[in-house]
Predict the 3D structure of the following.
Amino acid sequence: MTDNDLKTLWKSQSTDAFTMPLQDIHRRAARFQRQVRLRNLLEYGAGLFVLGGFGYYIVEFTGLLMRAGSVLVMLGALFVLFELHRRGASRQPPGPGLGIASLDFHRAELARQRDALRDVWRWYVAPFIPGVVVFRWGVETELADSPAFAHGTLANVCIALVFSAIVLVNRWSASRLQRQLDELDALAEPAAQQI
């Protein structure tokens, strides 16, 4: 290829600028951050409910396994709430006059939330498993005759299915965020080629 061929190729490139209006970027970023705040508010509420419920079980039940399981579930809930804040807290988008910085911010936030959702099995589900196992062991042995909790393999399978559903739903949500990232990358590609 000669210099003239390269110049011709350069001049023949599409000069279409970034096609998403700045207002649309700000609107999408603000809407996304509102959704993240709402999700987190619901998760914090659920965490407080778990802490209160298992705190009640510590007082109500005298069996060692029930109490130990309750403490472990509560510790798991505290860890999950901490990780939710660390990994998934919403952030304030940059002001309207910052253009590409807004696009970069929105893209980074989509990627950060996607990564948090992909790893939910590790930081959201796994911390509860030791406590749930010990608690369920207590239900089966210390409350064998009590109708207060479901007993047997079916109850334990249902709990495992709930944990699996949480992982699958979050994986699906992560794939939706990846599609949004791909869309942003496709829109930004013509602008990057001009540089």
Q: What stands out?
A: The mean pLDDT is 85.
